[in-house]
Carbon-monoxide dehydrogenase medium subunit (Streptosporangium pseudovulgare), 294 residues
Amino acid sequence: MIPAPFDYVRPASVEDACRVLADAEAAGDEVKVLAGGQSLLPLLRLRLAYPSALVDLGRLPELRGVADRGDHVYIGALTTHDEVMRSGVVREHVPLVALATATVADPAVRHRGTFGGSMAHADPAGDLPAVALALDCVFVVRSSDGEREIPAAEFFVDYLEPALGPGEVLLGVRVPKLGSGWGFHYEKFHRTAQAWATVGVAVAVRRGDGGAIEEARIGLTNMGPTPVRARVAEAALRGVAPSPAGSNGSDPLREACAQADAGTSPPADLHARPDYRRHLARVLTRRAVGAALG
Ligand code: FAD
């Protein structure tokens, strides 16, 4: 299909972009920011969105790139998935981001789609929002009124609804480094190699000196209208000492991970019913925790 007509603006700076967005807001116009276009353009073609103008951030190099900033890694919003997954800084310091990004779609989408676009789109089926939640990332946003930070726990408000005001641009994301002793894994169940997640599980887990789990963080993809933290399973995993399944078949990790779907409200669609998604969340969490523990 062909999109409804729209104006096209390509600002020369973030300030310009914010000014255009502020003017549009004052005039009551619906204007959308364009990054890689991998999600927005299909919505325009299907006429599920018909903004009066697109503000293309594509020529703003200050929004692009990865930087090691001591206690966190900063990922500019316009950094493509391909750049993120190949970044040595990301792979070394925040490997969960690299693992999940490598599962996004196919090389063509990863070369155009951006880290910030995936977050701002706030699709619960997207792989990266669950990672941001598990790692307690911080979103840095700017409008004509100035800059502010939004913790990941407050960023994903509802289905396709981030906590961005109409005049706000996502500048980048701070991804905290968790330090040594942590293991990571992203487990994704999808129908075909390049498809969206039916369910995905992002795990970061740390053992204490005695070998028992001291802290677990679990973010779930496609288990509700937003990405969700599996807080009940996280609590149940604390103190569990991973060991081979007992002779009676007991597996304390599996028992704790069996609570991964607690408090979720998974969707029903062509690919899975809610009860199947719940089953997947439990099984995939057990697998992801096992892989993260190595
Ligand atoms: P755009 O499409 O340009 O924008 C998306 C939304 O975010 C728009 O509302 C836009 O206004 C807003 N936005 C973008 N950047 C900013 C910003 N800096 N500040 C404020 N608002 C902003 N994703 C997955 O996670 N897993 C998959 O398996 C997957 N499979 C895919 C398969 C296909 C065939 C396609 C086309 C896409 C797939 N995607 C998948 C989505 C892909 O990851 C997109 O890159 C991502 O959803 C959006 O990024 P984008 O840069 O293209 O954003």
Observations:
- The chain has twelve helices and 14 strands.
- The chain has a mean pLDDT of 95.
- The chain has three domains: 7-56, 61-176, 182-293.
